[in-house]
Amino acid sequence: MRSLALAGLVTLSALGGGWGAGCAEGTVGDESSSGVGGSSGSGTPLADLIDPAPGGARRLLGGQYVRAVKRVFGVTASLAAAPPDDIQLHGFASIGATDLAMSPQDVERYEASARAIAKAFVTDTAARKAVLPCEPISPTDATCLSSIASKLGHALWRRSLEPSEAGAVGTLAVQAGETYGSVDQALAYVLLALLQAPDFLYVIELGEPEAEHPERRWLTPVELVTRMSLFLLDAPPDLAWIERAEDGQLANEADLRELALEMLARPEARAALGAFYDEVFRFDRIDETVKIAERFPEWTPELQASVHASIAAFLDDLVWTRNADARTMLTAEHAFVDATLAPLYDVTVPPGSGLTKIKLSEAQQRMGLLGSVAFLSVYSHAGMTSPTKRGVFIRRTLLCDSVPPPPPEVVPKLPDDPSGPKTTKELLEEHMKNDSCKACHGLFDSLGWSLEKFDPIGRHRNDDKGQPIDTHGESPNIGSFAGPAELAGLLSEHPQVPDCMVRQLYRDSMGHFETKGEEPALEDLHRRFAEGGYRVQELLVELVASPAFRLVGEPK
Amino acid sequence: MVLIPSKPLHRRVLLRGAIGGIGAALSLPLLEVMLDGNGEALADGEPLPVRFLSYFFGNGVRLDQFVPPTEGPDYPLTAELVPFGSVKEYVTVLTGFNSHCHPSNKITHHEGMVIFSGHNNRNVGEGEGFFSNTGGPTIDQVIAETKGVGDMTPIKSIQLGISKRPSEVDFGTTMHAVSHAGYLKPLAPEYDPQKVWTVLFDSFTPPKDPSGPLRLGALNLVRENAKKLEKRLGSADRQRLEAHLGGVAELEKKIAALPPVCEKPGKPTEGNIDVAGSEPLIAVSEVMSQLLKYAFKCDITRVASILFAEGAGNTIFADLGFDTAHHWYTHDGDPNVQNKQVHEGVVYVMERVAYLLDTFKNEPDQPDGGNLLDNTVMFCSTDCSEGISHSVDDQPMIVAGRGGGKLTHPGFHYRSKSGENPTDVLLSLRQVFDPAATEVGSEDPRSVTPFQALKALPT
């Protein structure tokens, strides 16, 4: 179990250190400088307490690639984009993008995607007019083609192209222009060269070494604005932001916070956070979640779409509309449902009225995230509930506990059931009699039992195979509870829950599982999250302002 | 700077080009004019191609229904081997082998994947219990990298998947791919037969198409860009960039190759889309088998892997009338469930494997009456002995095909009495393609002692 050393936490100063020589550096306990920092009395800047994870290259995620194309070339071109699928590590595609190598099939897909984008763009007259700095006067207009390479390359590669680089792309384009006698083809090959370049496909986070501690490196302004944009908007930065960073307009923490707020004001920020929740809670799998058709005929693609929209609206409302305490995610007494989904919540919503806010049934003890059809259905089997899956979700996803695998000598099995039907809970309780099973299942099964009154598609039920359901439970480090409402209450007060929210966002934003050397920053973020009343919007700003967000170690 | 490199075409590619020049679409990839008088080698002395296929299915078998009671070529087909009736002479069943992976690898199911690589898993349990990364290249990739194998075809290797149900609680690369080019280099399977078809048959550059040299020119700029970037990166990222450039080289080879001139299958209508919540496992298996047959026959690739269902077995065999994932049944202590749902699930998988072998057997591959299975080596295994125990002792293996005459025929059953290292089997299969190879794997599961019984005696 992770222990939370909340007492004596180190804190971040207003400036946090690390803006390089000449920047004033606050220290822990230097409250006068910021008004936000607490004090540990140690006087050490937080940045100095962090041993950053290695820097290096991260691949653009599929969605980020598509959004980059959209920003630079417009909607039509982006619809043609078809990058390879992302692969997750530690539950995050961003971590896979940091560690995993590309396969030959990926390279082929990037090429095919680049060709498709180029084809779509060159025939999109409006986009061409809006995007290109000049229109080639002939298929061999090297000057204009190089200048296009230079401008588009700046936005795509997130750095200025050297004249020789733009020239080389221009030369290829001229060759294509000559071969086909076509300006469109010349232009297409500019795109083909730029879109396949490692400088586009990888985000480089190498930083610049600190003078006295060269093993610690501070991200350059462009690297920083890129990391921010990828995290907050799930897209590479606009060229305007890159230019601002290049012009030195991201020189201090105030600039950084201002830019973060500017990014968060964009609609893409909501979508980006929605995608984060989809990934971390695995709601992106709602569409693929299978239920036995004979037993659950209601589980149709239309319903699945409603389930997904419902949970997305719930989270969006909490974070963006109400900017509420994130822990109320667990105790909220409302949901947003449409006419299709309403019967599963035992309410009625008039057809055509869209997602409507409803009050959840108190009698059913249905609350928040753990009472949502989205959670209850994804974390079930196709034909039966899974207290284990639901319990593991609480441990792993809400508390960030590590769930250990069974000891090697264990032969896990459910016992034979000679005495007729038993509830899922009774079946699982039998293998809890085995000490080696109990060691792990004791951590999560009882959590799932409390939710047994919700069936595999999240409907309320009073019995399981005709047997009464007992929702009482007790779980280490959480306590005992009579049912889902009490469990939700215990979790919402549990210090690991907001700590885990911080950790999950941190992992996603940084593209790695947190290291021991980053713990001081995480603890600081947790404290700031608490002081701000657990508002996710504020946490997002604090995270990008944290020195951990700006520091990297030696390149991996 | 050379923008449009002139790529030297490989001999086989040139041969295809020569045929392409006469504009014929042929039903056989290896024309008689390309073969020597005996039909055993190409006219230029190159041996006929031998293909390698890894086949993986998750969650083990029922040993008491699977392991034949006797050894040797006359072994009886047990209840779980019955599907191999028509191809039995090509099928060798190896049992009693125990994984030599390091005990710390044992977190259930992950360690079983070592059977395909001979390398311990790495990063085991890191941060999360069920986490690991495959520690080194899997056998299919070792063979693909062998001179005279992956370099002879426009596509070095291809990875196919059938069941799309992931093992949700398992993290890291190990459990989600059966092919790995190395540590942190998973090769994700493609589950959509239509996309597989595009990669294998519909993405070649037509002869004289002016786009070919220009696309190569664009890839050359990728290299230039990578070279610049490489200098700034650390070693792990340099390796990733190297893998990227390896992919670029593969694509260059494909662009430079002329389109295959053999018969090509039509685009499949099957897209591996669930029907009323059920996976079309039989249809997808069959289409993938057919696509692979054409790909092997046309010498588009010589190495493939098929991931039927991820380790731990989260697949529901709806065709059998089941409504729960295979994994769940295997943990049911009720003997009736073990004997019905678990057993029938294994038979169902074996039927899919048998269909593939049968498809290959029915495909002529030589003018002298041989077939594709004669010139193929298939290594088939799973991530544990039985799902209920997920033990890596007695992990069953099936080796099929004659390997171009290099594997013992007819097939046989061998049961190890001493828990031999399964990597010995991989080494013997590697030696079919590279007789000089002396090892497979590393650390505990490494092998330097091939399993000799698989090797055909010299004639």
Major sheet of chain B: 7 strands, mixed
Q: What amount of the residues of chain A lies in strands?
A: 5-15%
Shape of chain A: globular
Helix content of chain B: 25-40%
Beta percentage of chain B is 5-15%
Oligomer: heterodimer
Query: What is the rounded Rg of chain B?
Result: 22 Å
Question: Which spans of chain A have pLDDT < 50 for at least 5 consecutive residues?
Answer: 1-41
Q: Helix tally of chain A?
A: 24
SSE sequence of chain B, one letter per element: HEHEHEEEHHHHEHHEEEH
Question: Could you tell me the number of beta strands of chain B?
Answer: 9
The helix/strand class of chain B is alpha/beta
Total strand segments of chain A: 11
Report how far the terminal alpha carbons of chain A are from each other.
Answer: 29 Å
Radius of gyration of chain A: 26 Å
What average pLDDT do the residues of chain B reach? 89
Separation of termini of chain B? 54 Å
Low-confidence stretches of chain B: 1-39
Helix content of chain A: 40-55%
Could you characterize the architecture of this molecule?
The complex is a heterodimer of chains A (556) and B (459). Chain A is α+β, with helices and mostly antiparallel strands and 556 residues long. Chain A contains 24 helices and eleven strands. A five-stranded mixed beta sheet of chain A has the order 2-1-11-4-3. A two-stranded antiparallel sheet of chain A has the order 5-6. Chain A has a two-stranded antiparallel ribbon with strand order 7-8. In chain A, a hairpin with a 2-residue loop joins strand 7 (463-464) and strand 8 (467-468). In chain A, helix 8 crosses helix 9 (183-196) and helix 11 (221-233) packs antiparallel against helix 12. The longest helix of chain A has 21 residues, at 301-321. The radius of gyration of chain A is 26 Å and the shape is globular. In chain A, 55% of the residues are buried. Chain B is of the alpha/beta class. Chain B is built from ten helices and nine strands. Chain B has a seven-stranded mixed beta sheet. At the A-B interface, strand 1, helix 5, helix 8, helix 9 and helix 17 of A face strand 5, helix 5 and helix 6 of B.
